[in-house]
Amino acid sequence: MTTTANPTACVLIIGNEVLSGRTQDANLQYLARRLGEIGIALREARVLPDDRAAIVAAVSEVRARYDHVFTTGGIGPTHDDITSECIAEAFGVPWEPHPAAWALLENYYRHRNPPGDFNPARQRMATMPRGATLIENPVSLAPGFTIGNVHVLAGVPRVMQAMFESLAPRLRGGPPIVSRTVHADGLMEGRIAEGLADIQQRWPAVEIGSYPYYRPAGGGVAVVAKGTDPEQVRAAAHDVAAFLRACGGHPVEGEPA
Amino acid sequence: MTTTANPTACVLIIGNEVLSGRTQDANLQYLARRLGEIGIALREARVLPDDRAAIVAAVSEVRARYDHVFTTGGIGPTHDDITSECIAEAFGVPWEPHPAAWALLENYYRHRNPPGDFNPARQRMATMPRGATLIENPVSLAPGFTIGNVHVLAGVPRVMQAMFESLAPRLRGGPPIVSRTVHADGLMEGRIAEGLADIQQRWPAVEIGSYPYYRPAGGGVAVVAKGTDPEQVRAAAHDVAAFLRACGGHPVEGEPA
Questions:
Q1: B28 lies within 8 A of chain A by CB
Q2: What is the tens place of the pLDDT at every residue in B116-163?
């Protein structure tokens, strides 16, 4: 589709709490939107348990396949926070104190009131794969890091977002991925499917997606045209609207309310 | 951990709309909880684009690795609904009209008032990998299916849930995975991390997870003990509560409000 010229990315969501259903992931949607704005095409996401072998295998696989890998979760001080040491293993480098992160946290705990203890658990948060570059954490201090094409972020959404925005200026994307949505109440996917397929064929560089919706007052279909050429996206969305009108619908620009 | 005796599962969430951030996935948490209740250990989830090569490769890989695979999304009538034909390709079987599904949908459209058109797009929803067993859809009729250890469900949450519940009696799980949560306001992960690691070592068959939380009135830590032996889970949670109390906290059973 349109995004072949854009750098690609994979997100790894690390944490038993997402796989048990305790926690609803709130990071993927944020990263997906921001990466699209930056012009990086998110191609895959995986949710992984706090399991060393699973994390190392997935990181090794996807860092070779995609231009960027973003991990969320598993970089706190507790025994189930093992992302950082797994990244070191995947890269085959030592996991060791990072001088700048160490100084930052040691200094923070020394000057807290009352002073905190920069204990072994907290020291783990300043221990990183050799060669890591810090990602600033303006919310809760303990930094994330980048090594190679892997960016290691926190799991708490507020912290993850702040870290991502610290990192964003260093990410080089392609042309932004833009989209236009047209929706029409009362139309059913099964009626418009063949016409939509024709429009998709007419605009091979635009990705056309069809999404039924359901509302108490009745449903309809939303059609999304997406790509990196704003003119083609606009023209494809125009064709969709004309077709929905020809099917007897009343197409409206934008998502259904 | 505790769940080695339980059958394992992987969820594949199929749809560009999740990878673009347009849609927040709402199916993983439901499946995660229900699988835990049934005693099936969810080990991984992946979000995949509407891309034939990506879907076929992922299905082929994970169906060999896990006891069950559940897919959501991509089984409607439009050109971007390609899950079913990709599953056929992954299994190396023909993708062909399923007689029972075909009869069901043909009959439905014939007797609608006004009659609908059982057109080629709708016929796609009755076209399945050879050997598929139907999964009933009490919400919107068009069925899902099981082939081998792969269960193919809709993407719309209400429909997905109804399909899963149609399927659930046919799934054989191990012992249910139970959990107990203890939380304490005001405690920080960095202070309790070493003691929690000790408790984890004492209860190797219980999975102990630590999750900080943030509230306008202040934060704390929630600790989850999870496993298939209710007695061990209870005892580990008891040890956690005693430890948090020794750290000066006031542990409360359950999730923070």
A1: yes
A2: 799 999 999 999 999 999 999 999 999 999 999 999 999 999 999 999
CB nearest B194 (choices: A32, A119, A191): A119
Q: What is the ipTM of this complex?
A: 0.95
Q: Find the mean pLDDT for residues A218-225.
A: 95
Are the beta carbons of A210 and B76 separated by less than 8 Å? yes
A196: chain B residues, CB-CB within 8 Å: 78-79
Band of residue B4 on the pLDDT scale cut at 50, 70, 90 = low
All structural domains of chain A, each given as residue ranges with its CATH number in brackets, are: 2-170 (3.40.980.10), 178-253 (3.30.70.260)
A121 touches chain B (CB under 8 A): yes
Angle between helices A157-167 and A28-38 (to 10 degrees): 20
In contact, B185 and B250? CB cutoff 8 Å: yes
Confidence of residue B113 (pLDDT cuts 50, 70, 90): confident
What span, in angstroms and rounded, lies between the C-alpha atoms of A240 and B175? Answer: 51
Amino acid occupying residue A199:
I
Q: How far is B158 from chain A (nearest CA, A)?
A: 10
> Is the bond leading into B114 cis (omega within 30 degrees of zero)?
yes
Write down the residue that tokens 């890591």 correspond to: A132
- The DSSP output letter for A91 is H
- Which tens digits make up the pLDDT trace of A141-161? 999 999 999 999 999 999 999
